Amino acid sequence: MLHLLQPKKNLLLLPALLFMLLVPVIGGEVPVDTEYNDGPYIFYQGDSLEARWVCNGNAIITRHSSDDSIFPNTKCGKISTVPKIRQAVDEAEPIEFTDVPKIAALSDIHGQHEIFIRLLTAHGIIDNQGKWSWGNGHLVIVGDILDRGPRVMETLWFLYSLEAQANAAGGRVHVLLGNHEVMVLQGDLRYLHPKYEFVAKTLNTDYDELFSKKSVLGHWLRTKPVTLKINDFLFVHGGIHPQMLDLGLSFTDLNTTFQSGLDYSREAIDQDEALDFLYGGRGPIWYRGYFPGEKNELNDLKPILAAFGVQRIVVGHTSMEVVSAFHGGRVLAVDSSIKRGETGEILIWEGGEFFRGTLTGERMLLGQ
Asked: What pTM value is reported for the model?
């Protein structure tokens, strides 16, 4: 666990436009070459915006007013505009929801954008044009969008846009922090796809600086929670270790305390008892103890369920072949190994039943 960034000052956040670049790379491993298209990485620059791109392997930097459209080069792949970026604020997002009629959840996308889009389309969460079509349903991404795969930016911009569409329709898109979001924000870049090593070098910066507080996406990620409650379900990337309850944090304090450490140094985290636990191996983004054979295997979930007032815990982080249930259905594992770039599944709760959703649109009742 590395924590390399020092605390930074808050920056003035301005409204802007959001854009999604669709690069011609489809899931799976790709070699490093000089034909990459990537971006935009958009930064706040006083009263204007700066957009950084890699176009056909070359760096392009463009500057714009907040009302401009950003098109760096017509030869830079296929570029699509999307609605304006929402006003950036530092307020925490809501983390508790009740009476939600339907929920979908998946995790560990890791740059495999095509599989992610296929799953959402196959189950009617988005339409064939990539627009929200699930009404008042809630979609939960249980962490780990970043690292490993070659299409991270497409997924980030897509989810940023989809949030606004879902809100307008009475639904919600929730993005939770996973260990790989935290690693990138704190400068631990050991799991980058070679494409992003090339991008950072071409843009003459460290990759984590592309997600600094000054960037649109960097600020957006820093507002995301580490845990979420919908109805009587708890969502968390890794899991809740029973010793975490000894910290005495409320559900709200758990999230705000965790978020407060995102830009701290390792030394600062070590000096804070709560942060040291939350960012450690037993913390919510790293713990794997709900599964047979894992370190610190846990058998009694009752204290955790009672402390959070839930009946089930939905987690990612620990790879499965398919969406799976453990502990009599009290733990639902949604990391279906999308990161391999071959297949994947989505958990769907609707009509009081849990289903495994496949890439073909098939729904299978989830065994308890």
From this structure: 0.89
